[in-house]
Amino acid sequence: MDAPLLLAKGEGAALVTENGDYVAVRELKEVKKVFWIETKRVWQIAMPIVFNIWCQFGVNSVTSMFVGHLGDIQLSAISLINSVIGTFAFGFMLGMGSATETLCGQAFGAGQVNMLGVYMQRSWVILSVTSILLLPIYIFAGPILKFLGQQEDIADLAGSFSILVIPQFLSLPFNFPTQKFLQAQSKVNIIAWIGLVALILHIGMLWLLIYVLDFGLAGAALAFDITSWGITVAQLVYVVIWCKDGWTGLSWLAFKDIWAFVRLSLASAVMLCLEVWYMMSVIVLAGNLDNALVAVDSLSICMNINGWEAMLFIGVNAAVSVRVSNELGLGHPRAAKYSVYVTVFQSLFLGIFFMAIILATRDYYAIIFTNSEVLHKAVAKLGYLLAVTMVLNSVQPVVSGVAIGGGWQALVAYINIGCYYLFGLPLGFLLGYEANLGVEVEQTTERMRIWGGQDIGVDKIVAST
């Protein structure tokens, strides 16, 4: 790891100790230098990751845009799969893969590069088994959604789409660990290029399969499957051919100490799932309102917009995780701490910036997803809460990234249980269904109350951490 050497040669040379860590910073001039140094180092890692995540999220978002113009019921069906079934499985798989981020980052910082490939393979094994255990969720998505109270025709269409995207789900056990393997070494530019090419090809496939060949939802699912496996294979090829230090071939060491790895993977999964499953629960609550079609569609549009900002901070999450794990692996606790301070400050500033954009455009952005005037008005009324969410969700992913980098997933999991599920979700239910705030309550107002519980829950997480 050459980070301390780079720091010593640069403008911050006077700020480091003999072992490469920062000295205690007290004067304003020193604060400015550290702030600038850490800004460069975090965003050099974060920007390619953010770009790649935007591209991969764009695959989901663009698919919803194409399908949304087929009809409102099609938009609701794909929203349920992406926001409920997909979020449940995706969140668990991504969380399990975060153990690779912790161990690979710390091993790379400590100079044990040869272990990165072993950790990645170990994660392949664990996530492959996990994906098989989660398959019934996709196979029985229709009955599950009906059991959760979703409208029958929407649930049936969503169940059919769920079966078709199983190949996409089966790419995740190889996609996530490989991505974390590359991120731990700051080899993030290749991830960004792969994501860009995949997004461009995906848009072309959607247009061809949905509109030219008239395959409808089946065409969207086929494009989704091909794109996801294309990204995964491209990453694997790069690792095998160009990452000779970290990748030394398949090894039986992948099965050694696997239960310790499973425990860390489960802690990571619980930490992340408690966050992403909350969003799933909000969609389920909306689907139980009287006008489920408008409720699910308008809320999913807002969450889709919110997702673009969330992807930025997930990229920052990954970057600060890499910084913290690398510096802790090197024995530089002060460098890790200062990196966190800088990243949290900048994330809060970005959250305020995005809030202003949402407030300025709240009457217009629904046009991207649907031609329905009813949905346009419903989404516009949710714009104020969406804007608040932009701020509240800006800092929390950074805190999660710090936890992943330090291996403190279990502690954050306990905090998330209290904030999301013991406080936020029950409050959302009470505001959405039980509060007697008038004789006649519009559906949009009810959705705003449900979402209000989410915002307050996120706020408690930031304060608790």
Automatic annotation (TrEMBL):
InterPro entries: MATE_euk (IPR045069), MATE_fam (IPR002528). The chain crosses the membrane at residues 73-94, 124-145, 157-176, 188-213, 219-243, 264-286, 338-361, 382-405, 411-433. Its main location: membrane. Keywords: Membrane, Transmembrane, Transmembrane helix. It holds the Pfam family MatE. The keyword Transmembrane helix applies. GO terms for biological process: xenobiotic detoxification by transmembrane export across the plasma membrane. It comes from the Eukaryota. GO terms for molecular function: antiporter activity; xenobiotic transmembrane transporter activity. It is found in: Membrane. GO terms for cellular component: membrane. It is a multi-pass membrane protein. CDD domains: MATE_eukaryotic. Belongs to the multi antimicrobial extrusion (MATE) (TC 2.A.66.1) family. This is Protein DETOXIFICATION. It comes from Glycine soja (Wild soybean).
